Predict the structure.
Amino acid sequence: MSEQTPSPYFDRRGLIFVLSSPSGAGKTTISRELLRLDDNLVMSVSTTTRPKRAGETEGVDYNFVDEKTFTRLTKDGAFLEHAHVFEYFYGTPRGPVEKALSEGTDVLFDIDWQGTQQLASDKNMGADLVSVFILPPSTEELESRLHRRARDPDDVVRQRMEKASDEMSHFPEYGYVIVNDDVEQSVGRVQAILEAERSRRSRLIGLHEFVQDLRGID
Ligand SMILES: Nc1nc2c(ncn2[C@@H]2O[C@H](COP(=O)(O)OP(=O)(O)OP(=O)(O)O)[C@@H](O)[C@H]2O)c(=O)[nH]1
Ligand SMILES: [Mg+2]
């Protein structure tokens, strides 16, 4: 994407770009593609108590910790938001996100509705938040995607289908909604949302001075 970073005209505060969806709606595929195409977007690496899966890398996919460590980090205020999802704990480390935002870098969050609610109600983070909810085109498609992934045993698939209905009920808490019937088109839509939100006046720093200058006022 052709975002000028940093802008030669004024600075911009980064934004928090949340993508949520029920399991299997295609959120991970869309996220990967978005990150590949956009050089001003970085992924927030969450901390979790979930065991590492084959193919996952510590510090890249997640920071994998035990429950004791997670509890300590929570008490220390190390997380911007945290939640219990399925049977594990997940949290977003505060430090890297705050640093990126202050440098004008946008941060992609793959988090659930509980985390999104916490960010939306946070008086500081709420203003930085742009949230997108991704829906599958149909229940049948959702179920077949979960089976095709064949990564989780059948009982986990069943459990996730049950959760999907609950998760989808949270769509009104999101600013944008996309039905993922075609990955390429969905990526395009998500890119358009991101690009528009980058021009939101409240994120632009030093705009007043820039315009004063344009007007010839010192
Ligand atoms: N609130 C919150 N949710 C998170 C965080 N990190 C991951 N999640 C959510 O936890 C759920 C489970 O994620 P994973 O354990 O990676 O499993 P997955 O197979 O990727 O699950 P899906 O993305 O739901 O298909 C997903 O809905 C994620 O969006 C976090 O830091 N905070
Ligand atoms: Mg995922």
Observations:
- Residues 23-24, 27-28, 46, 50, 81, 83, 85, 90-92, 110-112, 114-115 surround guanosine-5'-triphosphate (ligand 1) (CB under 6 Å).
- Residues 133 and 146 are 18 Å apart (CA to CA).
- The mean pLDDT is 93.
- The helical segments are 27-37, 67-75, 94-102, 113-121, 139-149, 154-168, 183-198, 207-214.
